[in-house]
Structures are given as structure tokens and as C-alpha cells.
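Long-time lurker. I teach an intro course on protein structure, and each term I like to show students one example going from raw sequence to a predicted 3D structure in C-alpha cell notation. This year I'd like something fresh instead of my usual example. Would anyone be willing to generate the C-alpha cells for the chain below so I can use it in lecture? Attribution to the forum is fine with me.
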Amino acid sequence: MKSILLAGVAAFTLAATAASAQTVGFSQIGSESGWRAAETTLTKQQAEERGIDLKFSDAQQKQENQIAAIRAFVAQGVDAILLAPVVATGWDSALEEAKDYDIPVILLDRQIDASDDLYMTAVGADSVHEGEVAGGWLVDTVDGKDCNVVELQGTTGSSVAIERKEGFEKAIADHPNVTIIRSQTGDFTRSGGKEVMESFIQAENGGENICALFAHNDDMAVGAIQAIKEAGLKPGTDILTVSIDGVPDYFKAMADGEANATVELTPNMAGPAFDVLEAYWADGTMPEKFIQTDSKIYTQADDPTAEYERRKGLGY
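-- Reply from a regular --
Happy to contribute to a lecture. Here you go:
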């Protein structure tokens, strides 16, 4: 009889645990960069550690796939949605559907142009500040010397590309010696960065007219570094490089003397997002509308080999 009662208690406990488990849908942009892959890995790890059932959807860089995923999550009755938006506009209808069903939405690492009552909070860096930090480093490094800059932009229309460009331009605005001479999207991909950098080099006297590269992410910069080497130039010396994200391959390039600086964007956006959701589920606590992560710059003086070793297992 006692064993039957104990078995019944155990079954009840398991049932209660299963009933209390929360389900979260995660619409990820895709895997256009190493940083994005690390964000996905860490989000899955955070969910597993917290006992959250994570429903993952890879949008393959297409907004229509993300909108379809949000609607599918709503239909499944998830308890919350994490959204890393591929572009800034066009979300109102899908997010209104989530709101109608009282499903909180948290934005990860990018902002949207929509009423802020359509999402609970946004977790991310200040992308304008990231661009300012990158631009400030370049201004200080060239120290008054003339410097023609080529810029690899992120995905056209994405908030992070718009804001990183804004911040960089703000940093160099009072320094006429630093001038952006060419700017084009590489779509945040390594192959895109290489292809566009090849065209920049060809258009600028084999790269002789280029002083520095500013890339909106490290993956484009790594592709551009390959193009610089193939053109017979020395990246990090003939053409300075400054980028944003802090991915392992860029730290390896810095250790090899082929890259100069990166502004770190932490891929652990999910940790703060899940903290917010757990507080909300516990007692209805509402967060601030923006939760900001740090933006630290790393250079060749910051032991890039050690940073590479520390980061390489994170899924980049």
C-alpha cells in the first residue's frame, strides 16, 4: 500500500512539473553569421537549464518566415515569444495577434519600428553606441592623418545596420580627416563581405586609396580580410579593420595581426530575456522597455589568442 501511495505521489509531482513547464517560441533570423549561431546555441542552453520548452524556428533571413513562425507559435498557444527581427518594419499585424492572446513578446538584439505596447521588452546593445565606439577607436588610431574608410553595412533595413552606421558617422563627424568613401551592404555574411570588399579594392586603385575598413559585423570583416590578402595587401597594416561582435575567428585574425579592433556584442541575449519572463510568470512583474548589454572594445593588446580560446566553444 505504501509503495502504491509513493508511486502516486511521484506521478503527481511529475504531472505538476510538466503542467508548470513553460513553452517559449524563438524566431531566429537565421545563421548568417557566427555571432548569430552563438546566440542560438546559448538560447537553447539557457532554455534547457531553466526547464523551458523552446520551440525554435530558423527564418533563413526572410521576414515572411518569421511572421509565419509567430503566427504558428500563437496557434500553438506558447507562453511567450522571443523574436530576433530581420528588419525593423512590418511587424504590427503579427505582433497584434500575439497581443490578442496575451502572449508576451521579447525582442532580442534588434529593435523594430512599432508601438512599444506590442512587445514586453527588448534586450540588446545600444547599436548607435557600438558604432560610436568603433569610430572613436579609428579616430584615435589615425591621430589626425587622412583616412579613407570603406564601410560594409549589415542587412538593408535592419535596425542594427542603421544604428551602427549612425553611431560611426557621429564619431567621425568632427574629424574631416576620416571620410567614408564607399559604403555597401554585405548582408552580415562572410561571403558578402568578401565579395563587396573585392569590388571596393578594384574601384580604389587596387586598395591603395583605402586606409581602413569599418564592418557592421565581424563575419563580413573576416570575408573582407580574405579579399585584402588576395589583393596582395596586408590586412591590419595596409588597411586597418574595425568591426563589431567579438566572434572567435575575428580574434584569431587579431592574434595573427590581420585585424585591429572589435566591439563585443554578447550573444547571451536569452539570459536576461528568460529572467524577465520568469519574474513575469511568478508575480506579474513588468520590465523596463529596454535592457542594455555592454559594448566593450577589444584590440590586439587584449590577448586575442586567449579570447579566441574562451569563445570558440560557444557555437560561433
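Some talking points for your students: The chain has eleven helices and twelve strands. The longest strand covers residues 178-185.
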